[in-house]
Amino acid sequence: MENMPNCPQCNSEYVYSDGTNLVCPECGHEWLPGSVAEGGEAQIKDANGNVLNDGDTIVVTKDLKVKGSSLVVKQGTKVKNIRLVEGDHDIDCKIDGIGAMSLKSEFVKKI
C-alpha cells in the first residue's frame, strides 16, 4: 500500500483513497491529493497546474459570464495583483470595466 498523508483536519493516519479523493474515516474529512502542502497550507493551482500566489498576474482562459448582469469577462483578459481565498471561487481580484470579482482557478493561467 502506498504511503498516504495524515488527515489535515484531525491528523489521523488511517486515510484511504476513494476514487480521486482522500478520505479520513475518523473525522469524515475529504480532500484532493496534492491540495494540501507539507505545512498544512492549501496550494491553489491554475488550469496548467502552476501554483498561484498572492499578487500574481493571470489571464482568463475562457469567456465567463458575470452572474447577475449581462457583462462577460472575455478570454485573454489580464488580471493583475490577485488575492487567494478559500472556497469554491478561490481568487479575488478587480477587473477593469467590471470591478471586484471572484474567479475559479480552473479558468485562469499564470503569466
From TrEMBL:
Name the source's superkingdom.
Bacteria
List, for all copies, the residue spans of the domain called Protein YjdM C-terminal: 44-110
Q: Name one Pfam family in it.
A: YjdM
Question: The Protein YjdM N-terminal domain covers which part of the protein?
Answer: 4-31
InterPro entries in the cross-refs: YjdM, YjdM_C, YjdM_N
The similarity annotation says: Belongs to the YjdM family.
Its protein name is Alkylphosphonate utilization protein
Which organism is the protein's source?
Culicoidibacter larvae
